[in-house]
Structure formats: structure tokens, C-alpha cells
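Below is a typical protein record.
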Amino acid sequence: MHATMEDIKFLEYKDVDLSDSLLIVAFPTVGLVSSIAGHFIIDQLKLEPIGAIISSKFMPATVIHKGLPAPPVRIYAGKKRCGPDDSCKRLAIIISEFMPQMETIKPLADEIFSWAENKGCKIILSLEGMHAIRSGKDKKPKVFGVASTLEMNKELKKYKIDITQEGMITGVTGVLLYMGHLFQKDVICLLAETELNYPDSHAAALLVEKLDKMLPEIKIDPKPLYKAAKEIEDQIRMAMQQAKPTAPSIPPLPTQMYG
């Protein structure tokens, strides 16, 4: 049975004013770079939990963090000046440890887009991993970008982020991008090159590094993430191994970017 928008609910623990805020969206994709980067941002900036997204269609699981259970899709926020020209008053982030099943992605992304509109969020910025397309002597991974509006593409160019000219982005990010384009709302996607088969903290640190340059007022230092990359990757591998006996079988994730 396919999920509908009625199956997906936003549960807000407190009423937080998110008008003129920057909303970061981090669902796991290639190399888990978005989830790793999202966790790092939440911890570095000490963002507080303000809500969750719940659905009977989500994986029946709980996330244990600092000894307490939490829903797999969570919302955090904090009062931080950010965004282009420091025009955003708050930073919010939606983060998840799992990628929703294919039939749930569209209604989930629609609900995130509508919720962001209703809360008055100014910009949606989605974090992604993409299969490395390096060739020849160009062995250093890069961060690419794409935006829903010409104004946001200019912002990407300003920070020397190469704009993806051709390809396909699937999942929650893909829906958010074309919804932003259809309704002329500012949506940005940052894609870090990564390897497919393991958690890639170095690629996540590249995303954090770009965000630090794009959002200078909030000062996200990527150095600790680079330093702890091996430890983080080992922890995630162990968690994935431990989850295997209890987790239901999940179809393989679609390729996030190709072309």
C-alpha cells in the first residue's frame, strides 16, 4: 500500500519560530555522508530537538542517542545567523538514519516542503552524496551543487562550487529541488563525491567545509570531523552489523546521481 501525505505527521515538541530560517535536510544516501554531516552540525552547534516526523510507513526502529530513544526522523533547531548575507535568523535541520521506502519518498518530501513553507523557512539546503566521477589525475573529491532558482545558483558560483549541469538526483532531495523550481522557492543541494560501499566521513567533512564557507556566521569547524573520520566510520559499520539480525529486509537504495 502506498503512503499518502495523511500517513506522515510532524510532531513538534515546542512551538519554535522558524520564519526566515535555513532548513538543512539530511537523509542518508551514498556513503551516508548527509547523515554524518548532519550529526556533526547538530553536535557542533548544540542544536536542540524541537520535533520529529512520524509515519506508520517508516522503518519500525528507534535511534538510541546518549542513552535515550528517539524517532528515526528528527528535527533540531537553534538561533543562529546564517544563509546568504546572514539573512536567516535560525538554523533548523531534519535528519534521519534511514532512507524511506520508494513509495514514501514523494509524500514525505511534499510534507517537508509544505511544512517549511508554513513555518516560513527562507531556504532549504539538502545534503547528498554522489558516486565519484573523478578521472585521470583529478583524484581529490569535490563538492558540486545545484539550486532551484537562478539566485541560489549565483550563490553557489560565489563560493566556487561547480554547478551540476546534467544528471539525475533521486530521493527526498530530488523532489525538493523540482518543487522549489516549480514554485520558485530557494532550494539548494550540495553533493559530495564519495565511494559507494562504506560510510565516508571525509566526504561528509567536505560538505561541512563548504557549509562553513557559505555560512561564515555560524562557524562550523570541519577539522574534528576529518580527525575523527576513521573512528566514526568504524562506529557506523559496527552499528550496521549489529542492526542486521533485527532489521527487516530493505530493497537496495536507488542510485542518487548518474550521468
Observations:
- The chain has one domain: 18-129+140-244.
- The two ends are 32 Å apart (CA to CA).
- Residues 18-129+140-244 form a domain with the Rossmann fold fold (CATH 3.40.50.10900).
- The mean pLDDT is 83.
